[in-house]
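Write out the bound-state structure for nicotinamide-adenine-dinucleotide.
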Amino acid sequence: MSDLEFFGHVIDGEEVPSVDGATFEVWNPWTQKVWATAAEGGPEDAARAVASSRRAFDEGPWPRMGRAERAAAIHRLADLMEERADDLAVLDTTNMAKPLAQAQHDVSRSIWNFRFFADHQRDHCGEVYPMDSGHHSYSEYGPAGVVAAISPWNFPLMMASWKIAPAIAWGNTCIIKPSEDTPASVTLLGRLAVQAGFPPGVLNVLNGHGAPAGSSLVADDRVDRVTFTGSSTTGKAVMASAASNLAPVSLELGGKGANIVFDDADLDNAVHWAVEASFRNSGQICLAGSRLFVASAVYDEFMDRFVAAAEALTIGDPFDPKTRFSSLASKRHFEKVSAYVDGIGLDGGKILTGGADDEGRWLMRPTVVTDLPLTAPAYCEEIFGPVCVVNRFESEEEVVRLANDTRYGLNAMLFTENLSRAHRVASRLRAGTVWVNCFFIRDLRTPFGGIGDSGVGREGGNFSREFFTEPKAIVMQIQR
Ligand code: NAD
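---
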């Protein structure tokens, strides 16, 4: 065990083990071996982390610092992340079998998240409203306090950075609890924050399982905001727990995105993005286009090309530069995805390509399914794996109805060269984000979040500002 890496908690400016010394194993899902251990946070560790962040907020310099100084500190962290970008990417790849090039892309986006919010809080810090009555009203966005952030394993660093960056940029202090499946890169981020000279407690990392580490954080009445990304089931539990303290929550939850290919689509482009939306990150993307609807007129041609492209993805070792697709993030997750795939045939569905790996790896090959009843679990529920269920449609009216017939509403994609149709359909889709002729492009100024079981609230730009601050109105008499 001594030759394994160890990921402790980062609390109050130092890396520490759990109070009771408990640890858990960290797996490499590609090699199917334990490669590290991490501190198993319990209620006492969570309480310590919250006490530290509370102190940093109530008494420390961070919330009182000038905006430029705070921005500079966050840019310093981003600089250190750039210096250690290779290590951050290697940790995510080792920890969850994400192909290295994709992990490198995630690290770049994570760095950008910090830089964006560092600058955003300087440039969008208030509004002035001159009033006809001879008064001036202006707004002030003061930090909310201590933020508990809980993140999933599919984009270990990037999902955490979406939460930490706006939280600390707006002057809050933050405790991040990464997923127990992927503690590595976020722990390194916590170490880098110490190295960047962040005051103790501004960014604490608490490792451990959902319960008790995450649940203790959320239930703590010294926490002022809870931001959570994960499954819809856990999100509901998190919201219920935070409600007892009246702590506002932001929930980014599951999805079952519709991807619509109209008969006038540029098929090269549509096939390319259908493959990305279904199989990138082995389909472990909340934004996956896992329900694909193809216009009857182009169905046969599209499907031939889509299946061929899915089969052409290079599967293998996530560290091999040629690899585009690798194993799922854990044995537990492989078993969950396999159970859905096993049910497809029983429910009358046809697997055109894909299915479980036959070499004993925790790998589900890119899987394309047709003929599945619209009531089947694999059609209705989020599988969170590389399984794309395809249906054909005849009319715009029909496909909008099909696309919206879900309890999720995170995102949708549509492919058409008809401008009016693009606008018309985008507007009718019940989803937090609609991509037209593309996928996975994000501008951090825009709202991001979901409808229904996909979440509560929006983050991004001023939407993050509203969540992570206490907006205040100040009214001043100007004329007597
Ligand atoms: P999960 O809900 O199992 O876990 C998410 C996090 O919550 C982990 O850190 C976990 O330890 C913690 N947790 C578990 N139980 C908890 C509790 N009772 N109290 C507090 N914290 C608890 O989800 P997952 O399997 O890690 O991630 C996959 C899910 O995340 C999918 O449903 C996916 O769609 C969703 N997701 C959503 C988005 C989005 O932006 N909407 C992005 C990525 C992933």
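---
Residues 11 and 204 are 5 Å apart (CA to CA).
The longest strand covers residues 135-143.
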